[in-house]
Design brief:
The structure is a homodimer of 336-residue chains. Chain A is α/β, with parallel strands linked by helices. Chain A has 9 helices and 13 strands. In chain A, α1 crosses α9 and α4 packs parallel to α6. Chains A and B meet through β8, α5, β9, β10 and β12 of A and β8, α5, β9, β10 and β12 of B.
Chain lengths: 336, 336
């Protein structure tokens, strides 16, 4: 396989290098692309130094490439999609640029891997991090009884704002420990010792774009146009794993025991749920790990058709780079 | 008024001193009580040094006292309630010891102040912090259309575990900045840069006691035996204000505009809700403040009879000391 990473110097770009290695992805040649700021940097992949090339409007640069993992923001993805896919490369795009386009599949392999093959434009979209983490747990429940409603409060790590987001949290924390004022650049307000109930821009209905992604992307991935998701997305002073408190309402009542069994068997999901021994998922434990972790599973005391649980997943792994690589792996494994 | 504070050296005890002063509470004489560890310490109240007396089984110590603010834990409250109330003092107890007793009113003055007068044992219970903060916002909605269901995810500050909880978060943060391992003593796990979905002990239904307090205490305060609350309570690395993402379902649909007006008029509640200008409540801003702050008010996309909003309130103020003092103020103002 000839593989390219676009946005190689970013937090997700760097994670692509690690994930491709960890997953033992079949790579014959790896190309790295980036902005002017990043071009010329050298990264090592399996003992070989690779120089970041400038991303430019030159389709020949992507000739012969099988998979392109893109994570350089929506505007870059839009601008270069034609260049990247011109010669038949499959572009797996981590940005929000194409996610809701009807001719671009939005894929979480554990849920709707088959959709990856329905790609007239050669583009496959990688979902928003919180959605990717959530649908891995919704799928096994939806298979038992269709989910009608989801209420979800997120606890999102600084990593969702990229490397500079993580750097800002760590820097602010050090400044506060040293008795200084926290410097605010990336986030709207100080994040250290604080919570910011605002991720991405606000939309007309007073939900943020991040919250509406959870509404729209969940419907698309789950093939559930009637499923409704009301999300409150909150940035928390955690470095890199996202957490979510989720309530679901199913059409028919589903027992906690049945969901527990389904969670235990579910692909991509690891159940950590032993309250007596203080076992439940926490972001500190999930950072850098592949699976989505579920715990605190119990009946919804406010809804006879309801269940509630707690999810934690690494935002850069399943929330971004890992899911994109898993899409390519699915396509290779189920090649048509 | 002759006033006593039991547990004077604790985080809430110290806040009682500040709140009584700020509220200009009519005090002629102030007595401080504490454990053996705290007895003998001297605190200044309005220019006068007051020595902490040892709390002992001696009813004469509370003779002539009008109000006793107790915050020394449930076991101390249970042990000394008779001693404290023997000569007619009203004991306003911050612990969970008596909250669900049918002959002890559980009071948030903005919601059910009148209940304070129905106190056969001379004991009035102060609710759990998350409940006290939430019911201030539930009340104005419930007055428009009865609330049937509440789903709430909390983001609870270290202060809920007392002064030692706050100290532990700050110490852990400094340790991490210095490249050391975080020392874990008070909380079950490292709290700095982490989230712990576990507050108080687990109960038989896999909810924690903290979560069941939100279920049971809300019903009692709101006089709503049918209202159901499903809560997920999470400790977050914030020093002292609690936040809550709340969804409510009312019997009849209620417009966001109507709730907005009700919130603007509601006692004890301040609406900060201007997304265009990035105005919403945050714990860093609410720390040390009296009101409960509400924001992010919008329709519940997953429920036609639903609304959702974000609350922030100082855990030691409205969540503890302030509410207790407000109960006493209510009783003085509406004296019978």
């Amino acid at each position: 396989m000839k593989v390219a990473i676009v946005g190689a110097s970013g937090a997700v770009g760097q994670e692509f290098l690690r994930v491709l290695d960890e997953q033992n992805f079949p790579i014959d040649e790896l190309l790295l692309f980036g902005s002017e700021r990043s071009a010329g940097r050298v990264y090592n992949y399996r003992g070989k130094d690779i120089t970041v090339q400038l991303l430019r409007e030159e389709p020949e640069d992507f000739k012969g490439v099988d998979f392109v993992f893109a994570s350089a923001g929506a505007s870059v993805s839009k601008k270069y999609a034609d260049v990247i896919t011109r010669h038949g490369a499959i572009m797996i795009d981590n940005s929000s640029a194409f996610r809701m386009d009807s001719d671009v599949p939005l894929v979480v392999p554990e849920v709707n891997g088959e959709d990856a093959f329905n790609t007239p434009r050669g583009i496959i979209a990688n979902p928003n991090c919180t959605t990717a983490i959530m649908v891995v747990a919704l799928k096994p429940i939806n298979d038992i009884s269709p989910i009608k409603r989801v209420h979800v409060a997120t606890y999102q790590a600084a990593s969702g704002a990229g490397q500079s987001g993580m750097d800002e949290l760590v820097r602010q924390t050090a400044e506060l420990v040293e008795g200084k004022e926290a410097t605010v650049e990336k986030f709207a307000y100080q994040l250290a010792y604080n919570l910011i109930p605002h991720i991405d821009v606000f939309t007309d209905n007073d939900y943020t774009k991040e919250e509406m992604k959870m509404f729209n992307e969940t419907r698309k991935i789950m093939h559930a146009p009637e499923m409704s998701v009301s999300a409150t997305c909150v940035r928390v002073p955690v470095v890199r794993a996202h957490s979510e408190a989720v309530w679901v309402e199913t059409e028919e009542p589903v027992s906690v025991e049945r969901v527990r069994e389904a969670f235990e068997k579910a692909e991509g999901l690891v159940l950590i749920d032993n309250p007596a021994e203080k076992k439940y998922p926490m972001p500190l434990d999930a950072a850098g790990k592949d699976p989505v972790y579920a715990g605190r599973l119990r009946a919804d005391l406010a809804n006879p058709c309801g269940l509630t649980f707690w999810l934690v997943g690494d935002q850069i792994k399943k929330g971004a780079a890992l899911n994109a690589v898993q899409i390519a792996q699915y396509m290779i494994r189920h090649r048509r």
